[in-house]
Amino acid sequence: MRITTLFGKLLGLQGLWVRSVRFGDGELRINVKKRAKLLTCPHCGKRKRGRMSSSVRSWRHLGLWGSKTRLEATIHRMRCPSCSKVVTEQVPWARHDSDFTRPFEDAVGLMAQKTDHTAIAALFGISWVTVGSIARRLVKELLDPGRFDGLRRISVDEISFRKHHRYLTVVTDHDRRRVIWVGEGKSSETLGACFEELGPERCALIEIITMDMSAAFKKAAREYLPNAQVAFDHFHIAQMANAALDEVRRSEVRGLKADEPAKAKAIKGMLAPTRYRLDNLPEKHQAAISQLRPTQPLGRAYLLKENLLDVLSCHTNPIVGLKQWMAWASRSRLEPFVKLSRTIRDHFQGIRCFLEHRVTNGIAEGMNSKIRMLSHRAFGFHSAEPLIATIYLCCGKLLLPELQLL
Ligand SMILES: [Zn+2]
C-alpha cells in the first residue's frame, strides 16, 4: 500500500485525497487535495466553477501517535453569484473560518460538554480563548432551530458571571429539559428579546413560565405571553428561606460578639449545619443541630426554614400548609422571616401556581446548578459570548457527531 493511501485511510475524512506526507519541526504535515472540482460558497452552499486567487492553508487535526498533525491544501477564492461577494471556498474537512479540522473541533466540543476549559486547553495544546471560539462555531452549526417550536412550559433564570458584575438570562424548556435561549443582561428587555425571537404565535402557546420573583421578568412575561401563568418556583423560595436563616444567624452573632464571644463563635459556625435539610444531615453536624432550641432565634429560624421546605415539597394540601406557615412566620419575632412571609403573601398567586402544577423537577434544578457551575468556571471570560456558547453546548442538548479516539 502506498503511504499516501495509508494516510488517506488513517485520516478517515471524506472528500479529499492525500498527496504527500512529511515530518518536520516536530509536526506531521499531510498535504491533501479536495476531490470535488466545483467550489462551494461557505455562506449559501452555492457550487460553481471559476476560481480566483489561490493560497496554501493548513488546519490542525487530531494528533497521530502523539505528534501534532496538520492538513495543508491549496484553496481558492470565488465570486459567489448568490451572495454577490468574493469568498474563500468551503472545504469538506473544516468549518468556515476555522484553523482546525472538523474532527478536532468535535473532540474539543465533546470534552467541553464534560469538563472545564483549562483541562481541554492543556489536553489539546490550544489556548483557553480557542476553546471558546470552537464552542461558538459548534453552537452556530448545531443549535436546533426547532427548539422554539411547541413550547408549553418554560423557566427563566438569571445567573451572574465576572464576579457578579454581569448577568445572563437563561430560558429553559421544562418539557424537553434543555436551554433554548441565553442573552446578556437581566432586564425585561433582555427577556423580551427572547420572546421577540419566538414571535407572537409561539408566545401565545406558552402556558406556564417559572421564574424568581424578579419584577423585570414578570413585566416581560405580562407583555409578551398572553396565555401564560407565572409560577415562582421552589428553588428560589428555598434560596430566600436560606437567606432569611442566614440573616438571623448573623444578627445573633453581632448581638453576642461583645458580651459572649464564645457563644457568638459557636453560632457563627452554624452556617454549614443549618444549610442541610434535617433528613439529609451529615453525621458531623448532628450534634450541632440537636442543640438548637425553638426558644432561641436561630433554632426557631431553622425550624421555619425546614417547615417551609417541607410544605413546598408536600403534595397533600400544600396551600393550607403554606398559609399556616405564613401565620407562624409573621408571629415569629424574627424580622427576616416576617419579611419573607410578607413576600410570599405578595406573590401568593405565583407560588400557588407552582404548587398546583409542580413544573420544576430535579432535572431542572440539576441543570440550574450546572449552569451556575459553568458561570463560576467562566470568571476568566472577558465577554459573554464564550460563556453563552458553553451553556448551549452543555445544556442545550446539542448533538455532536460521534467520535472515537481509540
Ligand atoms: Zn454564497
- N-to-C span: 23 Å
Bound molecules: zinc ion
Percent in strands: 15-25%
Name the overall outline.
elongated
The helix content, as a percent range, equals 40-55%
Order of helices and strands: HEEEEEEEHHHEEEHEHEHHHHHHHHHH
- Runs in which pLDDT lies below 50 for 5 or more consecutive residues are none
Radius of gyration: 28 Å
Secondary structural class: alpha/beta
- Describe the sheet with the most strands: 5 strands, mixed
What's the average pLDDT?
A: 88
Total number of helical segments? Answer: 16
Q: How many extended strands?
A: 12
Give a written overview of the molecule.
- The chain is an alpha/beta fold and 406 residues long.
- Among the domains are: 3-99, no CATH class; 234-357.
- The chain has helices at residues 3-11, 102-112, 117-124, 128-142, 188-204, 215-224, 234-256, 261-268, 271-275, 283-290, 297-313, 318-330, 335-346, 348-357, 362-377, 384-395; strands at 16-24, 27-34, 39-40, 47-48, 54-64, 67-80, 85-88, 153-161, 166-173, 178-184, 208-211, 229-232.
- The strands form three sheets. Strands 1, 2, 5, 6 and 7 form a five-stranded mixed β-sheet that branches.
- A hairpin with a 2-residue loop joins strand 5 (54-64) and strand 6.
- Helix 7 (234-256) runs antiparallel to helix 8 (261-268) and helix 7 packs antiparallel against helix 11.
- The relative contact order is 0.10.
- The model has no long low-confidence stretch (mean pLDDT 88).
- The chain binds zinc ion.
- Residues 41, 43-44, 46, 80, 82-83 line the site of zinc ion (ZN).
